[in-house]
Amino acid sequence: MDLKNETFEQIILSLHPSSLNLILFPTEHCNFRCTYCYEDYKIGRMIPEVVSGIKKLLHHRYKTLKSLEISWFGGEPLLAQDVIFEISETILSLQEQNPNLSYVANITTNGYFLSKQVAEKLIDSRISLYQISLDGDQAVHDTTRVLSSGKGTFDVIMSNLLALKEIDAEFIVLIRIHYQKSTYVKLKSLINTLNDQFGGDLRFQFYFKSVDRLGGENDEDIEALTFIEKAEIEEYLKNFVTDSRQVYSLDNQYICYASKANSLAIRANGRIAKCTVALDDERNDIGYIQEDGKLCLFQEKLKPWIKGLENLDLKTLACPYHSL
C-alpha cells in the first residue's frame, strides 16, 4: 500500500529531535476494577524523584523543542491531580520563555473524578483532549466498569460529561464506546442518549472500540472478534449516530505512538516504556529517567519498537508490539 503524504509527514515528525511526546503515569493505582482490565495496580503514585526528573528533562529540552505533547495516563491519573498540575505549571512557565514551542496535552481518564471544577482547572492547564470510556447504558456499563467496591459508575460519569458540556471553552471529549460480541446489539440505547445530550456539539466525539484480550486475568471471558467482524459491528453502530461529524475513526494509515522514536512513556516509578498496554512485558522496559532529567535508554531494546520507521510496514507502524 502506498503511503499518503500525511503519513510521511508523521514519520518525519516522529524522528525529529525538535518534537517530543511524553506519556506520563502520575499514578498507576485506580479506583475502578473493570472486568477486562490488564493492569495490576502494583505501582502507586509517581515518586518525587521522577516528578523532579521530568521537570528537569523539560528544562533541558524546552529551548530546542518546537512541539511538545503530554499524554496523561494511569491507572487513573486524576487520583494524583497534584502531580498533573505541578508538571503542567512547569510546562506553561517554559512555554512563556519559548513562545515558538507548540504545546498540547491530553488525558485518558475513567471520568469519575472529572467534575466541572476539576475539568476547568485541567483546561486552564491546557489539557484539551479527554478520552473517557462507556460500555453501554447503565444496565450494561455497570456490570463491567465498576468501582473497586463493585458499585456501578455510569451515573457519575454521565453527570460529569453533562457538566463538561456546560463549560464555555474549547476542548474535545472522545467518548470511547466499548463493544463486545455479546453487547454491541445493546448499545443503541446509549447512542440515543448521547445523541440527545451531545448531538451537534462537535466537542464530543464518539469512538467505537472493541474490548480485546490485552493480558488481563479475565481474558478468557472476552469473546475474540475478527478484523472483519469488528469492521461490520462498527459500521452498524455508526449508523445510529445522528450527526456523522461526531463519529471518530482512526486513519487506515494510523501510526501508533509506540512506533515513534520521540514518544516515551514514563511510569510512576521512573521506568520508561514504549507501549501503555504491555506493561508487564520485559521487552517494554526500555530504560529509566534519572532525578537530574537524564534519560537512560537501552538502545537494543528500543530498536524493535521503531523498526516500522525503517521498513515502513503499515501493520508494524500501527502496532509495533504485535510485530516484536
Uncertain segments are none
User: What is the CA–CA distance across the termini?
Assistant: 21 Å
Class of secondary structure makeup? alpha/beta
- Coarse morphology: globular
Question: Count of helical segments?
Answer: 11
How many strands in all? Answer: 10
> Which percent bin holds the helix content?
25-40%
Q: Strand percentage, roughly?
A: 15-25%
- Strand order across the biggest sheet? 6-5-4-3-2-1-7-8-9-10
Taken together, the total number of domains comes to: 2
Q: Give Rg in angstroms.
A: 19 Å
The arrangement of helices and strands along the chain is HEHEHEHEHHEHEHEEEEHHH
Mind summarizing the main beta sheet?
A: 10 strands, mixed
Mean pLDDT: 96
Explain what you see.
- The protein has 324 residues and is α/β, with parallel strands linked by helices.
- The protein has two domains: 1-108 and 256-324, no CATH class; 126-252.
- The chain has eleven helices and ten strands.
- The protein has helices at 5-15, 48-61, 81-97, 116-124, 138-141, 154-165, 188-198, 227-238, 299-302, 308-311, 314-318; strands at residues 19-24, 67-72, 102-108, 127-134, 172-179, 204-210, 263-266, 271-273, 287-289, 295-297.
- The protein has a ten-stranded mixed β-sheet with strand order 6-5-4-3-2-1-7-8-9-10, with helices on both faces.
- α2 runs parallel beside α3.
